[in-house]
Design brief:
This protein is α/β, with parallel strands linked by helices. It is built from eleven helices and nine strands. It folds into two domains: about 160 residues, P-loop containing nucleotide triphosphate hydrolases (Rossmann fold), CATH 3.40.50.300; about 80 residues, no CATH class. The strands form three sheets. It has a four-stranded antiparallel β-sheet. It binds iron/sulfur cluster. Iron/sulfur cluster binds next to helix 11.
């Protein structure tokens, strides 16, 4: 979304094809071009709806403002579009609630307003950054259900960012695991949850209690902490905490390697262990 402060450094490429046109690299687009895409072709839902909304502006006006920013449209029509978007996110009595201020709505309703703002211009990509973290479990379930319905109704691609593995297992088709700012594993939900290949993913999954967890023992944890950005190890960033590490791990930054079709992990050590295991299996 290119919302980082000017002193932030980004590298790499992010390709996005707006309206099925030619894909462009978002990381290299000039500011005006990215402004046109942001809020229209790609939109974002933030974690804490109260800070994402203007407390002194009616919620209907805030949604209408997003419409006016990207369309030549009268204020009256923009307001109508805002009310329609509130209907889309299942806010009852939307025409009346559009006149409310954020503090007059519950946390779940405020998050629905933020979602309405995001979808009002019918984006292709919706980025949801921990959209349910600030909500209680019942409302969280309702918001996840709503997002699933909107994905289908509007043909949305969704990039869902979360530290909650239970939520990820519920919403994702493909999962990308990040550690210290780098992608360490990428694959289908099934592959990542059933056959995690990176030691960090394995550690995360082992730390989640399930029905078979022995309640008499302490929960498994990953020893140590994430390295500070100004003191990143030269080699694998997970090396100081990794039970599989070998001396070479501290030397070179590991590449992403294919574990199986569509499943990638940034760990040559586990990759070669898995390759050996597979080659020892009897041919079927
Ligand atoms: S590269 Fe080495 S240190 Fe890094 S995750 Fe793999 S085994 Fe562990």
């Amino acid at each position: 979304m290119r919302l980082l402060p000017p002193q932030a450094r980004i590298s790499g490429e992010i390709f996005f094809a707006a309206d099925a046109g030619e894909a462009s690299n978002l990381a290299a687009l000039h500011d005006e071009a990215i402004r046109k895409l942001r809020g229209s072709r790609m939109a974002m839902i933030f974690q804490e709806p109260m800070t994402a909304l203007n407390p002194v502006m009616r919620v209907g006006d805030q949604i209408a403002e997003a419409v006016v920013a990207h369309n030549s449209i009268s204020k009256h029509d923009a307001w109508q579009r805002a009310v329609e978007a509130m209907n889309d996110v299942a806010i009852p009595d939307a025409a009346r609630r559009a006149r409310d201020y954020p503090h007059q709505l519950s946390g779940g309703m405020r998050q629905r307003i933020v979602i309405a703002m995001a979808i009002v211009n019918r984006p292709q990509l919706l980025i949801a950054d921990e959209p349910t973290t600030a909500l209680d479990v019942t409302i969280q379930e309702q918001i996840l259900e709503l997002l699933a319905q909107l994905r289908i109704k509007f043909g949305l691609a969704m990039l869902f960012i979360s530290h909650d593995l239970a939520v990820v297992s519920q919403v994702a088709d493909r999962v990308a695991v990040m550690y210290a700012g780098s992608l360490v594993e990428l694959g289908s939900k099934r592959d990542v949850f059933r056959q995690p290949a990176h030691p960090y993913t394995r550690g995360l999954l082992h730390a989640v209690p399930n029905l078979r967890t022995d309640r008499g023992r302490p929960l498994q944890t990953i020893e140590g902490t994430v390295p500070a950005l100004q003191a990143m190890p030269t080699g694998c960033a997970f090396e100081p905490r990794c039970e599989f590490r070998i001396p070479e791990c501290a030397q070179d930054f590991p590449p992403l390697l294919q574990v199986s079709s569509g499943h990638w992990a940034r760990c040559p050590v586990v990759n070669s262990l898995l390759t050996q295991q597979n080659s020892n299996l009897p041919a079927s």
